[in-house]
Design brief:
Elements (H helix, E strand, L loop, with lengths): L4 H14 L7 H8 L3 H18 L2 E6 L5 E6 L3 H15 L14 H4 L2 H15 L6 E5 L3 H12 L3 E4 L10 E7 L6 E7 L8 E9 L3 H11 L4 E11 L11 E10 L4 E6 L11
Parallel strand pairs: 3-4, 3-7, 7-8, 8-9
Antiparallel strand pairs: 1-2, 5-6, 9-10
Helix pairs in contact: 1-3, 6-7
Length: 277
């Protein structure tokens, strides 16, 4: 079946956006649409320019016999700032206050549109890194990690607080929580992660960084490499944080239960970035 250019553009755009960071040869597209590679190349230039103009991402060309093109998710700085400002506004709502100074965040983590935008923005920051798998800890970090993994087109794995029979043999370690200083345990199935994998750690919330530090220690048992650390929200922490290099979208600076006030600002995500993240 011969495709018209308008049909090719729509179908190629759909394919690329559903296969982020996947290298696709021009021969593949040429065969599907029964069109010359020169026509496919012209179509890809149109898609690339549109993606960049609309702040969707970009299309990278890899030269050589084994080359092709791949879609890299990106977010324009102005779009990301607008979203993070909106997120800060939602989190600062005093109705989120729970006894003990905790914040109710389940509705945000259950909102598919918010999660999709969070995942794309976090994925954009690390899209050029060589990442094999996304890793998080049960339970609230799972939806964030899943959406980040989707936009990076890699699998995600979940570290558990205890081992369960359906996971098979596991690797378990003890770690000290950075804020409460309590000894805790985490485990990961041996089958879920290959030796030497390159891992992006994703979590919903970080205070002192004890849990993330525990995940790093656990990854050492697999001879895996940490390629980055991203969190949805971090909180103000007066003592020395256990994690130095990380990316956060928002920062919860202060929670005043008596005055029913929550002070929230943008995280460190926007430090030293260009127009495209």
């Amino acid at each position: 079946m011969k495709f018209r250019r308008s049909e090719r553009l729509i179908d190629m755009t759909h394919f690329l956006m559903n296969h982020p960071r996947k290298l696709v040869s021009l021969t593949h597209f040429s065969h599907i649409y029964q069109s010359a590679k020169s026509s496919i190349s012209e179509d890809l230039v149109i898609i690339k320019n549109t993606f960049e103009h609309q702040g969707i991402g970009t299309v990278q060309t890899v030269p050589g016999a084994a080359g092709g093109v791949k879609y890299i998710p990106r977010v324009k700085k102005e779009n990301a700032i607008q979203f993070v400002d909106h997120l800060c506004e939602l989190i600062s709502n005093p109705d989120r206050l729970l006894p003990g100074g905790y914040l109710y965040m389940t509705d945000l983590l259950g909102d598919s549109q918010i999660l999709n935008e969070v995942g794309k923005i976090l994925a954009s920051a690390v899209a050029d890194r060589d990442i094999d798998v996304v890793m998080t800890v049960a339970t609230k970090g799972i939806p964030v990690a899943q959406t980040v993994a989707h936009h990076l087109s890699v699998p995600f794995i979940v570290v558990r607080r205890d081992s369960i029979a359906t996971e098979g043999s596991t690797v378990s370690i003890n770690y000290v929580s950075g804020s409460s200083k309590r000894l805790q345990m985490m485990s990961l199935s041996r089958r879920s992660l290959q030796e030497g994998s390159k891992v992006l750690i994703v979590d919903d919330f970080m205070k002192a960084g004890g849990t993330i530090n525990g995940m790093i220690d656990l990854l050492n048992e697999f001879n895996a490499t940490v390629e980055g650390i991203t969190v949805l929200a971090e909180s103000e922490f007066q003592e020395e944080r256990l994690i130095d290099e990380y990316i956060s979208l928002v920062k919860i600076k202060d929670v005043n239960v008596k005055a029913k006030q929550i002070s929230v600002s943008a995280g460190n995500y926007f430090s030293g970035i260009n127009e495209f993240l």
